[in-house]
């Protein structure tokens, strides 16, 4: 998907630094915080005796972390694209990074492959670091290779833990889905595994040291932060699984109304004359601008002449979902929950055909129940 560097949606993801396999890559503002922390930690032991060396090593280690995260996310993107899943963006942030993609016609096997591609790529980098250490004799290069080994070994091992929101949790979700034929059960099981992991982290890094009479250190702070992030992601997965389960076997067609795409220069009056929902495209050509109607106080001459683009609601890119009328509503509901916006533009083969709303979903679910 193409994107323009100055669009509001892009600014919301951070600084765009390039593309990987055609996918835009962003640095979120929070990434610079973790980079600063790494520079300080690495440089501090030698800051008094050799500050230039310490700062250089710290900056290079922060960049190695960025490269490792981007390799991890690029592996997700390559796997998703090879399986026919359009990839929207890659974002590096405080917690590592994430890859946004549209899971068209998802299956347990496909989602497991995409999830495990990231840790596998880090394991390969860790292996390359080991080979490099075997032929390197001390110095800054050896220190950087050791950092590369530790970073990628940790990323690989941590991410294969079978608990959401980690990659291993997505693999566990896929296994339960394949065994039961019900993806929602997989989400709930993997979500509870995530909650157990969050509690275990707090017990291991905080409760047990306290029982031994030790004072919690810096690791305890990180344990609390990481545990809270895991707990939040796991809880979201559980709630999402329960929400989708409550929808039964609703299809996209049951919660959608027909929609037309018109040029942004179309007049407001022409949009009002349409008997279908009306959307238009932004500067990038993405059909994420929904005609939102008018105030009764708007003058009649303005209605006739004002362009449609002056009366639209911008939807997040993730709320443009590729789905046919026969597909389950899972992807539609997931998009609404992730963005908090109750409208989803529906496309098939890249062409807009309908609009789904949260009210239509709730109404259909209530009627079915």
From TrEMBL:
Protein location: Membrane
The name this protein goes by in its record: Peptidase M50
Cofactor(s) recorded in Swiss-Prot or TrEMBL: Zn(2+)
GO MF, any single term: metal ion binding
Domain of life: Bacteria
Domain Peptidase M50: 62-138, 142-191
Main subcellular localisation: membrane
GO CC entries: membrane
A Pfam short name: Peptidase_M50
Keyword Zinc (UniProt): yes
Gene Ontology biological process: proteolysis
InterPro entries: CBS_dom_sf, Peptidase_M50
Membrane-protein topology: Multi-pass membrane protein
PANTHER family registered for this protein in UniProt: MEMBRANE-ASSOCIATED ZINC METALLOPROTEASE M50B, STAGE IV SPORULATION PROTEIN FB
Similarity-based family: Belongs to the peptidase M50B family.
TM helices/strands, residue ranges: 21-47, 59-79, 111-135, 147-166, 187-207, 219-239
Keywords (A to Z) from UniProt: Hydrolase, Membrane, Metal-binding, Metalloprotease, Protease, Transmembrane, Transmembrane helix, Zinc
Organism in which the protein naturally occurs: Knoellia koreensis
């Amino acid at each position: 998907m193409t994107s323009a560097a100055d669009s509001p949606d892009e600014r919301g993801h951070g600084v765009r630094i390039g593309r990987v396999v055609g996918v835009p890559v962003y640095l979120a503002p929070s990434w610079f915080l973790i980079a600063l922390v790494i520079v300080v930690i690495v440089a501090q032991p030698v800051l008094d005796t050799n500050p230039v060396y310490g700062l250089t090593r710290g900056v290079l280690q922060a960049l190695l972390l960025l490269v490792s995260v981007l390799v991890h996310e690029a592996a997700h993107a390559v796997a998703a694209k090879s399986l026919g899943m359009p990839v929207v963006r890659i974002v590096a942030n405080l917690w590592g990074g994430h890859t946004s993609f549209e899971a068209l016609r998802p299956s347990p096997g496909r989602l497991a492959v995409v999830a495990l591609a990231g840790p596998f790529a880090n394991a390969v980098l860790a292996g390359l670091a080991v080979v490099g250490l075997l032929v390197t004799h001390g110095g800054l290069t050896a220190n950087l290779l050791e950092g590369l080994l530790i970073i990628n070994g940790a990323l690989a091992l941590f991410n294969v833990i079978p608990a959401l929101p980690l990659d291993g949790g997505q693999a566990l979700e896929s296994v339960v889905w394949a065994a039961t034929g019900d993806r929602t059960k997989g989400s709930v099981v993997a979500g509870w595994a995530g909650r157990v992991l969050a509690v275990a982290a707090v017990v291991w890094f905080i409760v047990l040291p306290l029982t031994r009479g030790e004072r919690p250190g810096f690791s305890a702070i990180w344990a609390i932060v990481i545990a809270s992030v895991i707990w939040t992601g796991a809880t979201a997965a559980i709630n999402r699984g329960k929400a989708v389960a409550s929808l039964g076997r609703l299809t996209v067609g049951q919660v959608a109304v027909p929609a037309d795409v018109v040029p942004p220069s179309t007049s407001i009056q022409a949009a009002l004359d349409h008997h279908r929902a009306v959307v238009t495209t932004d500067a990038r050509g993405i059909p994420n601008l929904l005609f939102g109607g008018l105030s009764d106080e708007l003058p009649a001459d303005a209605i006739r002449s004002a362009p449609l683009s002056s009366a639209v609601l911008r939807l997040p890119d993730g709320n443009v979902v590729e789905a046919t009328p026969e597909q389950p509503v899972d992807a539609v509901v997931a998009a609404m929950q992730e963005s908090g916006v109750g409208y989803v533009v529906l496309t098939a083969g890249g062409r807009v055909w309908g609009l789904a709303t949260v009210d239509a979903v709730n109404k259909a679910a209530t009627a079915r129940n």
